[in-house]
User: What shape does this take?
Amino acid sequence: MAPKKNKKRIAFQGKTGAYSDIACRTAFPRFEPLPCPSFLDAFLAVENGKADLAMIPIDNTIAGRVADIHYLLPKHPLYFVAEHFLPIHHCLMGVEGGTIADIKKVYSHAHALPQCRKIIAQHKWENVVWSDTAGAAAKVAEMNDPSCAAISSDLTAELYGLKILKRDIADEKNNVTRFLALSRRPDLTHRRNKRYITSFIFSVKNIPAALYKALGGFATNGVNMLKLESYMPGGGFASTLFYCEVEGHQKDAGLVQALDELTFFAKDLRILGSYENKRVK
Assistant: This one.
């Protein structure tokens, strides 16, 4: 279906009905969701003006971080402008007439399968990794084979004509995916009655205790650090890039000072954006 003219669009990775699609519809109900084959395609849709925003999963309470995103962030000039938390309710679904006893293979996204280890191990099903949960449901519907099932949302069962065999099959009940919305331009709005998170990436200089010294400014300026993750870009071991999230807006005096001190011991600092903190206090 062609996008409607003059309507804002929000890109996501996957087919219609994927959890990212649900996140788009929930957080930005006035935007038209734009399915993309890959995370890269979703990033490029925003860069090229095909979409106004992209909704990207950043981490999950069970499966952890979505590593692909960390490798894309340094390469694309996009900014975080909002976060959204989506409760995940995985359903096991198959073709009409099929039963759980018929299943031999289960299709789903690489992050969804580990979230349902217990039921998969219990039945000794073969895992088949697919590009996204909705795509897995579409594939199972296309094959029309009772021995194949998908793990996806109840919306995809409705969209692709599948039968839900079991609901809420994740290992843990508190299964939540955190999404971040990306834009071509940063949103520098700073309302005093709102709580904010600021995300940034950096690498440290090759000197002793560089990371320790780089982070010291956040403690001395009273800035609470929420997340610090490291990864090695380019498949090498020579340099490490850090992804960091702290409480506060990039315009806050304490955070301005902390980031300034960071630059004495770090390099390639890039602020990815400040956005409203949607976490429960």
Q: What stands out?
A: The domain at 91-166 is CATH 3.40.190.10 (D-Maltodextrin-Binding Protein; domain 2). The two ends are 41 Å apart (CA to CA).
